[in-house]
Amino acid sequence: MAAAVNRDGKNRRAKSAATPVAGPLSIGALSRATQVPVETLRTWERRYGSPVAVRKPSGHRVYPAAIVDQLRRVALLLSQGHRAGEILGLSIQELDALLSLLEPRGAGARPDPGAGPGEGGTGEHSIRSMLRAAGALDREALVRELRANWVRLGPLRFLQECAAPFLVEVGSAWHEKRCEIRHEHFASACVCGFLREVREPFDHDAAGSRVVAATLPGEAHEGGLLMACLLMAVRGHRVVYLGTDTPAGEIAAAAHDSSIGQVAVSISAAMPRALARRAVTQLRERLPRRVHLWVGGAGAPPAAKGVETFSTLSALDALLATQL
Ligand code: B12
Hints:
Helices cover 50% and strands 10% of the residues. By secondary structure, it is of the alpha/beta class. It folds into three domains: 27-99, Multidrug-efflux Transporter Regulator, Chain: A, Domain 2; 123-199, Methionine synthase domain (Methyltransferase, Methionine Synthase (B12-binding Domains), Chain A, domain 1, Orthogonal Bundle); 206-322, Cobalamin-binding domain (Rossmann fold, 3-Layer(aba) Sandwich), CATH 3.40.50. The strands form two sheets. It has a five-stranded parallel beta sheet, with helices on both faces. α7 packs across α9 (181-205). It is globular, with a radius of gyration of 20 Å. The site of cobalamin has 33 residues, from α8, α9, α10, β5 and β6. Cobalamin binds at residues 164, 167-168, 170-172, 175, 184-185, 188, 192, 218-225, 227-228, 264, 266, 268-270, 294, 296-298, 310, 313, 316.
């Protein structure tokens, strides 16, 4: 699950997923130990009756430390597409049996449910394998490598160390004529498909505020937007995905629904600076005052009144963590 990071992107893994935890635990401590957002823990309890908490006289939840190992396994299985309702009631042994069916990692070891942010990394070797797979238009091999990295790194590090650098590398390869347009299209289609697939179980369980996500007219790049959407869903936000090349009026109309708290927009380096600034200003003017406007991407204009600009996914993740 996502590493907890502060606004300047520094890792603050006081209790990472790999750290042994002593109980009893508050809901915040359980969330930090398992990287499952607090809001998600509450939703699971309401919907599925698990994890079970004892209530203090103050009403606050208290959990036994043993629940940490179980939830780390649950989190890993969710990232593989299992549904919360189907696995939350399972014993550790049953969860281990499901985990043993997962994709083998590296030289054949199976993913370690205790392995959190900080263990392993993607490395050039893996990016090179993905580039080779893209060159051969081999979807199976490319997705296998993406999945192995997703399991090993968790969402935030997967995006920062695997998906984003891979797409940047593909862009350079295309620019330097080391690959053709078909390879670039193929690679980005595989990554975008994978980002949608792994978001699905989080979307299913999300119960936080609703975020409209889109790119502005003329913007065809959706990788960055899908990455931001994955993080938002992991953090419990409900994503309303409008996709690329969306007229500002349509984005604004969607945001007028009272359930919408934020609009997230991604702008690539391909969009001229002046155009990006004008489009963002015009969108801000059309949005209800209460709706936050989050803008990210290599072509995002500098922050302006009523516009929050993110230069990294860590910064977004840090903000999302404070909203739990
Ligand atoms: C795939 C791709 C395409 C695909 C997109 C398909 C799709 N479904 O997305 C297609 C083929 C359509 C395409 C078209 C073009 N592309 Co293109 N493309 C790319 C490529 C390889 C990957 C894009 C991507 O997904 N990046 C995702 C991540 C890795 O980058 P990112 O957007 O900056 O996002 C990061 C952060 O900024 C942040 N973030 C992004 N959005 C948000 C939003 C929020 C809210 C937050 C918090 C954070 C956040 O998260 C990401 C992770 O760090 C890039 C290479 C690159 N360096 O990005 C070129 C690239 C962006 N393209 C480029 C160009 C030139 C074009 C075209 C003009 C080519 C042409 N002549 O037709 C067109 C323009 C199309 C248009 N109108 O927009 C150039 C831009 C260079 C420049 N400075 O102008 C690049 C950099 C390639 C290169 N090296 O030259 N492209």
